[in-house]
Amino acid sequence: MGTNINVTLPDLIAGYLKRKSKEEYLPISAIARKYIARGVTEELIIEYHKKGYSISKISENIDVPVAKVMDVLSRLDEESDVEKTLEEIEINSLE
Amino acid sequence: MPINQFMQIIVNATFLINTLRTEPEILREMKLSTIKNVATEIENELGININDFNIEIIQTGSGKLDLSNDKKGRLSTTDINLLKICHIHRKGCILVSDDLLLKNTASENDIRCYTTPEFAAYQLKKGVITKQRCVKFMNILKKIYIRQRDIDKILKRMEHW
To answer: Would you say residue A65 lies in a domain?
Structure first.
């Protein structure tokens, strides 16, 4: 099941898909589907992350592995407040 | 909250994926626990049976949690089950997860939670691993880690340890 969508692609992209289709012995539609699904999945992961969903919940909602969610999010170049935790670790190690 | 000498370490899938992809042998050197949902996630994703790494599977409990900040249901069932079991043991356990929502919710419920690199730093401070081992692990982890800059900050801090 799915929705049929007709799209016009730039020659460069269409040429790449045709080449991959030949290399992988698959119809061009299957190759295009694979790339679109991959791109949209990654966009969805980022969208859910920006809405504040946990990694596990994103994995559950989009039906992708936790490792895939982690890989996509690692490209966002984010950081957290590690100093506070490190201070806590340092204090506790003295006890 | 003082650190109990015999802290139970409860880990989620993010920690296990990070470690299994980088330094899996380090898992055998620690006494770790997790819940069945996490073990199943790891088996399905990486095809690894975590029993091979001497990780104990603990039963999920019915700890009373304050999830008032999660009205939109942004935590998964696995997250909530982990928090519940940690809440029961909150005075004697550490949750290890790289998910900041899970970490913040843990903190709101008086549960100690470290990310993977913070946990490695903690293990160094506790003398479980050497500084050399810890630095090596961090440098390998940095290649795949979700927040690489956190590792830089921890490594810089560790220079003075």
So the answer is: yes
- Does some domain include residue B145? no
Q: Is B83 within 8 Å of chain A by CB?
A: no
Whether B136 is in a domain gets the answer no
Please check whether residue B78 lies inside any domain of the structure.
yes
Nearest CA-CA distance, residue B2 and chain A, Å: 6
- Among candidates A53, A77, A85 on the partner chain, residue whose Cβ is nearest the Cβ of B114: A85
Closest listed residue to residue A48, CA positions, set A77, A79, A69: A69
User: What is the span of the domain harbouring residue B79?
Assistant: 8-115
Q: How far is CA A17 from the centre of its chain?
A: 20
- What is the arithmetic mean of pLDDT over B60-75? 78
Residue in B14, B117, B157 nearest the CB of A55: B14
List pLDDT tens digits, range B91-128. Answer: 899 999 999 999 999 999 999 999 999 999 999 999 98
Note whether residue A2 is domain-resident: no
Please report whether residue B94 resides in a domain: yes
- In this prediction, residue B143 carries a pLDDT of 94
